[in-house]
Amino acid sequence: MTARAAAVLAALEAEGSAKVRDAMGPRYGIVTADRVFGVPMARIQAIARPLGKDHDLAAAMWGTRVYEGRMIAFLIDDPARVTHAQMDAWRAGFDNWAVTDTACFKLFDKVDGAAAMVEPWTRLNDEMGRRAGFALLACLALHGKPADYPRGLALIEGAASDERNFVKKGANWALRAIGGKKDPALRAAARELAAKLAASDDRTARWNGKDALRAFAKADGKGTAR
Length: 226
Known about the structure:
Blueprint: H1 3-14, H2 18-28, H3 41-48, H4 55-62, H5 67-76, H6 84-91, H7 97-106, H8 118-122, H9 127-142, H10 149-159, H11 165-179, H12 184-198, H13 203-219
């Protein structure tokens, strides 16, 4: 570990709280095999801010195998220097929704050609790997990045019956994000898929459809869909 990485890790440890750490699993569903200090996200962001963009330091922080250190890595890495191979290597180490979503929202969706990772990830069998595919699709849509969104809707439909909690919610997030885009055709296609899923005989697919329809109805100012 470099001296700079050690200093960042020490700063994180100084902000750690046993109360925050102990609440991560029971309250927020963040369960990880990595070492955890218990630092609130706001403090992680405050420590990351003055570091700027630093690809080498990000790699060192990822390598610490400390939850907060890995969060720092997503915040400071330079997307212009991140390769698809790095994305896939880091994705293989995701073991909770918080690192998965933060990586996609803060870093991965800014990488050139990131949309190419969506389909192979959504076809993975492990829960967080598949979650990463749908989280990346959602983040691309939310941030107005290029992607094959009609194909994304097909991937969502194909995974809509996956009852694993973080896959289910990831697919739902992606469906709602695509349905929120300004393109009229995409908006209509997302709502059509949501209605189809809401009428499904499969309980998980039905939940996905109904939840998305409620979100769309609220966004469209039409109250709550049932």
